[in-house]
Amino acid sequence: MPPRAVRSKRHAAEARPLTQRSFGTQTEPARASLPPWLLPALALVFFLSGISGLVYQSLWQRLLSLVFGVTVYATSTVLASFMAGLALGSLVAGRLADRVRRPLVWFGVTEVLIGVTALGTPLALDAVTAVYVALHAAVPDAVAPLTLARFACSFVVLLVPTALMGATLPLVVKSSLGRGALLGPRVGVLYASNTAGAIIGALSAGYLLIGGIGIGRTFVLAATLNVLVGLAALAMSRAMVEAAGEPQLAVPEPVPAAAEQVTERERRLILVVFGLSGLAALALEVIWFRVLVLFLPATTYAFTTMLAAVLLGIALGSALATPLLGRARDWSLLLATTQALTGIVALLSLGLLMTLYHDGNVRGASVPVSLVAILPAALMMGVSFPIGVRAWAGDGRRDAAHTAERVGLLYAVNLGGAIAGAVLGGFLLLPWLGSRRALVVVATIYVTSGLLLLLVRAQRRGWRAMGVLGLPAVVVFAALASWLPEPIAAVEGRRVPHGERLLWHEEGTQTTVGVYGRPLGGTVLYLDGLHQANDTAPMVKLHRQIGVLPMALHPRPSRALVIGLGGGVTPGAVSLFGGTTVDIVELSDSVVHAASWFSHVNHDVLARPNVRLRVDDGRNFLLMTPQRYDVVTADIIQPVHAGAGNLYSREYFALARQVIDDGGLMLQWVGERPASQYRLIVRTFLDAFPETTLWVAGNLLVGSTRPLEVSRSAFDARLADPGTRQALAEIDVRSFDDLLALYTAGPEELRTFIGPGPLLTDDRPLVEYHRSLPADEPTIDLSPLRGDVTRHVRE
Questions:
Q1: What are the residues whose beta carbons fall under 8 Å from the beta carbon of 701, sequence distance 6 or more?
Q2: For residue 532, which phi and psi values (nearest 5 degrees)?
Q3: Pick from 100, 112, 41, 42: which is nearest to 247 by CA?
Q4: What residues pair up with 26 in beta bridges, in sequence order?
């Protein structure tokens, strides 16, 4: 049948009078005229829904990392399961929304159910943890089965609330459409308002709620907001019925065929472009976050600001696009232009940041750095979405029976692409190509998708736009790609001190690692732009003390665990003790590759026969391992860095206690820090290890579940072992009295000095979210803290 005949029959069906049109076995009432207050009201409730959505995402990512770890493989799997739920909900709701009589009621019920089911996710996570631990025990080193298990477990936990969240967009869009209503402007307004709410949600969770009231209460707050949104939607639906009658039906206005600017072939290509756009957007976000930690401290606040910059650009772009959507336009041309511009400005903005930063014109503050690097491309993403929806789904009056289904399908395809992008960016592009070339590849996807749309359009409308827009886009893009600086070169002389020269670097799946040489000699290790270790005498001695001290205090250590490799000095010192096997758990492959640069101070630790290395998340290892250890120690991990709260909580110390044999010891570095942070860390450690002692001028905690006892005669006997004697001599301990001289205080003095107060928990990681603590505190004064070491001595 010719297309014109199909359109004529469809228009005849749309003009069918009275109460319903048939769609298989389902019926749909003709859409009534909607009150003028509805769209602003929907924008407000969708704004509030966006707040809770991003709060949940922050909470879920944190909770799931406690079970599955913070490796790229684990976090990408969790993100994929989250987006899979959204995509599934969008597909199903898109089909249902076109068939239900009052979609606003369904939207309200969905919001209430989101709040109820989200509250249950912590309990669901507890239930699947036992399953995951059992699976891990069965296949401890099998990457593919464990990745599949992580996805399945997290998908089960998140399926219901995320599917309900994915359902909200088709339902709220359908609720906004009445007689004569245009889809495009409504999508623009609703998408912008929801994304604006997401900005508030991200900032609230990252800056205020998690540190201020904790994860559990934040769940309750977000769920309460969902329930209020749902009740408001139900009240709005009732108000519409009371104002208009039940039902007040109207016939949609037919739309002239000439108003349709997009062919079916272009529609199909738009669906493909939206899948590619989702892929490129998430891959670009992975690259942004990896590159920007070279310019910014890797704190949770920096990552929150980066995410807020992404969302701000999308919200502003959607708002700017809304006025364009009220009349017929060349949608293919507009979408092609925005796609190509996204790729171009992604290169231009990040290259501009690197140039300005290197020249000293931009300081390393999270807001200006994030806005310069992220906002322009995110703005174009925000412009593209409502234009793409308008191009794909029509104007909302033509083929109105399938509007929500089209919106749901487009959103699901975009999310499906985003799942692939999260995997592609972290697993393949960054480790294979490095950040600069990975950025060029992702930007190429955007530009190519725009050129494809122009090409298909040219076959129908002529080649003029291809010459006016396509050729200049290619030329500009090629010029920017060749000009784009290397990110690691941009930080030289700024975060990396002037005069240090790059010896080696690697952008791995987990971390960007750089090894630098100092002008007067010496080697420095940087992880994501942060100083981690160097080979100066004071730094090497401290790292050796972290390894040697618990080994010296334990009477007969045979198995030791070191969490974190760093420059390898700590596990290298532990490995010198005769009769001891050492397990090292390191999060990043790239750190492992860098260790050889420090072989002159780490005793070439990875080549020693008594050392075993495992690349894994340290906390996840403690949760899963059946091994038991005499000594557990860890490399220096700054507690204010993003994710470090998982390694300073009461629950983490409890996991460590479980893997320590009776009489075993755990060493925890605390360092010199503000009083509130110091007290929180020590108080929490004491809660897990009540017989904790303090050593090395108050820098090192040695935890035990029973009173510490050290024997002079046993210590002297151990000095007969050459390796033990060497390890002790390297920290200037050549006698029992030298060891005792490192003592600062015992558990009684510590409790008195620290006093009662809150603990660091998984629920409230206060030191990681340090803005919840007093600002500008001086370093704690430990001079009053003195104890008598003789109480621990047994001759």
A1: 667, 668, 669, 670, 682, 685, 689, 692, 693, 694, 695
A2: -110, -40
A3: 100
A4: 23
Q: Give the strand pairing for 512-517 and 523-527.
A: antiparallel
> What does the block give as tokens for 761?
């928990």
Structure-token match 């298990």, residue found: 149
Please work out, in degrees rounded to the nearest 5, the angle formed at the alpha carbon of residue 392 by the alpha carbons of 388 and 395. Answer: 95
Estimate to the nearest angstrom the gap between the alpha carbon of 134 and the chain centroid.
26
**Nearest of 66, 60, 62 to residue 655 by alpha carbon:** 66
In this model, does residue 590 exceed pLDDT 70? yes
Exposed, middle or buried by CB within 10 Å (0-12, 13-18, 19+), for 650? middle
Q: What are phi and psi of 484, to 5 degrees?
A: -55, 125
User: From the DSSP assignment, how many helices (H) and strands (E) are in the chain?
Assistant: 29, 16
Amino acid code (one letter) for 612 = R
Quote the CA–CA distance of 131 and 127 in Å, as a whole number: 7
Coil, strand, or helix at residue 660? Answer: strand
Q: DSSP letters along 255-293, please?
A: --GGG----HHHHHHHHHHHHHHHHHHHHHHHHHHHHHT
For residue 394, give the amino acid letter: G
How does strand 629-634 pair with strand 611-615? unpaired
Dihedral sign computed on CA atoms, order 273, 274, 276, 281: positive
Judge whether residue 301 has pLDDT over 50. yes
Alpha-carbon span 381 to 388, nearest angstrom: 10
Residue type, 689: F
- Supply the pLDDT for residue 68: 83
In order of 82, 168, 621, the CA distances from 75 in angstroms are 11, 25, 16
Instruction: Decide if 288 contacts 349 (C-beta within 8 A).
Output: no
Answer with the residue of higher pLDDT: 735 or 528.
735
Burial of 658: CB neighbours in 10 Å, binned 0-12, 13-18, 19+: exposed
